[in-house]
Design goal:
With 102 residues, the chain is α+β, with helices and mostly antiparallel strands. It has helices spanning 2-6, 10-66; strands at residues 70-76, 80-87, 90-97. The chain has one domain (2-97): Pantoate--beta-alanine Ligase, Chain: A,domain 2 (2-Layer Sandwich), CATH 3.30.1300.
């Protein structure tokens, strides 16, 4: 009679394992999406900083916008430009320096 009581006990265990697998998959997908947003933000920041060196703030704004970012901050001392951009709530900072020797 003991065998009848254990019958069907694999189904609840399989459901628990399946539920855990789904949770892990959602977590991994979210981590991947977050990494992509960080990379997009950094690319936009790098390009905006380079544009800022050559074209000033308008160039930085233009390049940030073209890359799907918002220019949050723009600082310059005449030779060095530092920008902060945001893409979907993720911020990135980049700096570029005007090469006065070349």
């Amino acid at each position: 009679m003991q065998r009848n009581r254990e019958r069907g006990s694999a189904l609840p265990m399989a459901m628990i394992v399946l539920a855990l697998a789904v949770v892990v998959m959602v977590f991994v997908v979210e981590l991947g999406a977050r990494a992509v947003r960080r990379a997009e933000a950094q690319t936009a920041a790098d390009m905006a900083a380079l544009a800022g060196v050559y074209e000033g703030r308008p160039g930085a704004v233009d390049l940030a916008t073209r890359n799907g970012a918002d220019l949050v901050a723009y600082r310059t001392d005449g030779v060095r430009v530092e920008v902060t951009v945001a893409v979907d709530g993720v911020r990135a900072v980049a700096a570029a320096v005007w090469d006065v020797t070349g």
